[in-house]
Design goal:
The protein has two domains: 1-101, no CATH class; 102-180, no CATH class. 39% of the residues lie in helices and 14% in strands. The protein contains six helices and five strands; from the N terminus they run ααααββββαβα. The longest helix is centred in the middle third of the chain and has 33 residues, at 67-99. Residues 5-70 form the P-type ATPase N-terminal domain.
Length: 183
């Protein structure tokens, strides 16, 4: 299957490719309760305690007040659900911060500041030294005369060594002004 990338053609790219929006959330407001309960009851110990609590509702086989079992069970589920909700909210905030980070793109020869979630396939992203790379990129130019770029991938693989990347031979020696005018 062939894949075509249209440079600086947001309309075509928007129809063919997914957005650059980051989402690490586990839950939504609509699915939190059922999904969290499913996860809670997929643990064997929780199933066991639910069975015991249900059996204690039957007054013929137990002399114990059902509240003595249901109270702690509900408390444990509530604490666990609250912790999951808090963790998911923090993931949401982290995603929001990453999605709203501003980056430079070059369109029709003009550098424009946009949010990283608005980057489309085919956009020319302008990065400076020590900038975080906001998406998968093809390197088409560097300020180095030999076309060398050093990339730290610690966020991806944990390695702090700089990795060497070279621009393609077809882009070697291309003038930066020409890069601005690519359409």
């Amino acid at each position: 299957m062939k894949r075509y990338i249209y440079i600086n053609d947001d309309e075509t790219s928007q129809d063919l490719y997914c957005a650059n929006r980051l989402s690490n959330r586990k839950y939504t407001l609509m699915n939190f309760l059922p999904k969290n309960l499913w996860e809670q009851f997929s643990r064997f110990m929780n199933q066991y305690f639910l069975l015991i609590a249900c059996l204690q509702l039957w007054s013929l086989i137990t002399p114990v007040n059902p509240a003595s079992t249901w109270g702690p069970l509900i408390f444990i589920f509530a604490v666990s659900a609250t912790k999951e909700a808090w963790d998911d909210y923090n993931r949401y905030l982290s995603d929001k911060k990453a999605n709203e980070k501003e980056v430079w793109v070059v369109k029709q020869g003009i550098k424009k500041l946009i949010q990283s979630q608005d980057i489309r396939v085919g956009n020319i992203v302008w990065l400076r030294e020590n900038d975080e790379v906001p998406c998968d990129l093809v390197l088409i130019g560097t300020s180095d005369p030999q076309g060398v770029c050093y990339v730290e991938t610690a966020a991806l693989d944990g390695e702090t060594d700089l990795k060497t990347r070279l621009i393609p031979a077809a882009c070697m020696g291309m003038d930066f002004e020409l890069l601005h005018k690519i359409k």
